[in-house]
Design a protein that fits this description.
The protein is an alpha/beta fold. About 50% of the residues lie in helices and about 20% in strands. The protein contains 19 helices and 16 strands. It has helices spanning about 10-35, 45-65, 75-85, 90-105, 115-130, 140-150, 155-170, 180-185, 190-205, 225, 245-255, 280-290, 320-325, 340-350, 365-380, 390-400, 410-420, 460-475, 490-505; strands at about 235-240, 260-265, 270-275, 290-300, 305-315, 330-335, 355-360, 385, 425-430, 435, 440, 445-450, 455-460, 480-485, 510-515, 520-525. A 6-stranded mixed beta sheet has the order 13-12-9-16-14-15, with helices on both faces. Strands 2-3-1-4 form a 4-stranded antiparallel beta sheet, sandwiched between helices. A hairpin with a 2-residue loop joins strand 2 (about 260-265) and strand 3.
Length: about 525
């Protein structure tokens, strides 16, 4: 058995970040489900995940940017803490970012067990100072317990294990400390997230996952039953560039405006979180203090509960969009000559009103635009997975295997695999003479494109379609998907179906109608 490490090095910190992200990914839905304090908005797990995702990304970038040698532990600790600060989401995510910042200063001086114990104590103190009105039975209590459990120091792994066990035990007692938790029959959601993060530290150091926290048995938590209706209407979060003195004034003003005030950071950069009735006043206070940016305002009241997961698909033609909408997707129609913008895609993602979104651009040229839109809404707390579908038939294949009850990552993998297993083709009519990979085409010629490249040039749509089908099926296939536009010749679909049925006995055919504005024919082979 390999000897346990005696110091926390840069690679261990990076492994800890990755492990914490994976742990929160596994437990995100469960943590969201027990989120009843300070507001029962069901997003604590998601906010913690996004906060740690930003920290992990910064840790990875610290390695990527370090020239031939890996960064030292001080560099990666600072990168992790800074990533958490700029990516912090929600009340618990903001506090977690301050915990990581509080640890960073001590761990930058040394990574042995005694330094880790001191770092956890420093983190707990820093987090308490960042919260305007600390409440027991929350993440703060769990952080205090973790620090107290390992205060004596010792070997690195021993300290990490004691911190985890102390946090785990404290978490079990949170319902007895906070009445809203007792009524709901749950532990504190933010505290459970911290236990997951500390468990990931133990696993990074030992290679063995500690005993996971088991949620006490409880009935379903109905978020609406936990809302008194008397709390502030908005959550306001922003990054702020400001001097310390201005931030002290800002804290006093925001404390008068609302509650759940958490201000974390330092050295000129702060993350501000508050619940208020007057969101404009909270932002104006930030403007007076310095330069606020990445401003996010969330309405707590009169807001439908977000769906767990949604699929957003870009589609050519109203008919195909209607078909996918019936299957549960939020759709965006790409009109001829009107490529959707990043703003269009971001608005479609928001319109889906879900915590998790699978984005299907269904066009090679939209991939970079879709990536930018996804990054934009991630900053608003929405978890987005971009599947780089290159054609509508790949999107249809992905949507066919979508299961919203499956874990997000598993669902994305299954959808990606289905899209990747679908070869695609398209028929188009040439608008002018041009050189193609299949030779010179004239205006009015029918072009058969396979996987984006012109493979067939013909004069008749049906004949060209049959040639394209034969070429695609020569490599095998079990299912042919035909998407027919409204202005194609009558009988095209029937002719192609008959051709497949008589020539390829073991191949099934499915036909969809794309409506107006779509290419004459889209073909998918799985």
């Amino acid at each position: 058995m390999p000897r346990a490490p005696q110091t926390l090095d840069a690679e261990a910190v990076r492994s800890w970040c990755a492990g914490a992200l994976a742990a929160l990914g596994r437990e995100r839905e469960e943590i969201d489900a027990i989120n009843v304090y300070p507001v029962a908005d069901g997003d604590t797990g998601t906010n913690l995940y996004l906060t740690v995702e930003s920290a992990a990304r910064a840790a990875d970038e610290a390695f990527a940017e370090g020239a031939p040698e890996a960064p030292d532990v001080a560099e990666i600790i600072r990168a992790m803490a800074h990533g958490a600060l700029i990516g912090a989401r929600g009340n618990s995510g903001t506090i977690l970012s301050q915990l990581l910042r509080g640890m960073s200063a001590v761990l930058a001086e040394g990574g042995d067990g005694d330094h880790l114990a001191r770092a956890l104590a420093s983190a707990a103190e820093a987090a308490r100072r960042a919260v305007a009105h600390p409440v027991e039975g929350t993440l703060l209590t769990v952080a205090d317990a973790a620090a107290a459990a390992c205060a004596a120091g010792g070997e690195l792994v021993t300290v990490a294990r004691r911190a985890y066990e102390g946090a785990r035990t404290a978490l079990e007692h949170t319902p007895g400390q906070l009445d809203v938790l007792r009524r709901a029959g749950v532990v504190d959601a933010g505290g459970r997230g911290l236990v997951a993060v500390l468990g990931a530290l133990v696993e990074a150091l030992t290679g063995e996952a500690p005993t996971p926290f088991a949620e006490p048995a409880h009935g379903p938590v109905v978020l609406g039953d936990c809302l008194s209706g008397a709390g502030p209407a908005y959550e306001v979060i922003y990054l702020l560039e400001a001097e310390d003195a201005a931030v002290d004034t800002l804290k006093r003003r925001l404390d008068d405006l609302g509650d759940s005030l958490v201000v974390v950071g330092g050295d000129g950069l702060w993350n501000v979180h508050v619940h208020v009735d007057d969101a404009g006043a909270a932002v104006e206070a930030g403007v007076e203090a310095g330069r606020p940016y990445r401003i996010r305002v969330t309405h707590f009241e009169a807001r439908p509960e977000p769906a767990g997961r949604a699929v957003v698909a870009v589609l050519p033609g109203d008919g195909l969009a209607g078909l996918c909408a019936e299957a549960g997707a939020t759709t965006l129609v790409a009109r001829p000559g009107e490529t959707p913008t990043g703003t269009d895609l971001a608005e479609a993602i928001r319109r889906a009103h879900a915590r998790e979104v699978v984005l299907l651009p269904n066009d090679t040229e939209l991939r970079q635009i879709a990536a930018a839109a996804a990054e934009q809404v991630r900053a608003e707390g929405i978890r987005v997975a971009l599947i780089p579908t290159r054609a509508a038939v790949q999107g249809i294949a992905a949507l066919a295997v979508h299961e919203p009850d499956r874990r997000f990552d598993e669902d994305v993998v299954a959808m990606t695999a289905a899209a990747g297993a679908t070869r695609y083709a398209e028929l188009a009519v040439a608008e002018r003479q041009s050189f193609t990979s299949a030779g010179v085409c004239q205006a009015g010629d029918v072009l058969g494109l396979i996987e984006g490249d012109v493979a067939v040039i013909g004069q008749d749509l049906t004949v060209t379609a049959v040639t394209v089908l034969d070429r695609m099926l020569s490599a095998g296939g079990e299912l042919v998907t035909l998407v027919i536009a409204d202005d194609t010749p009558a009988g095209l679909a029937a002719t192609l179906e008959q051709h497949v049925r008589t020539t390829y006995l073991a191949v099934d055919t499915t036909v969809y109608h794309a409506g107006e504005g779509a290419p004459p024919l889209l073909v998918g082979v799985e």
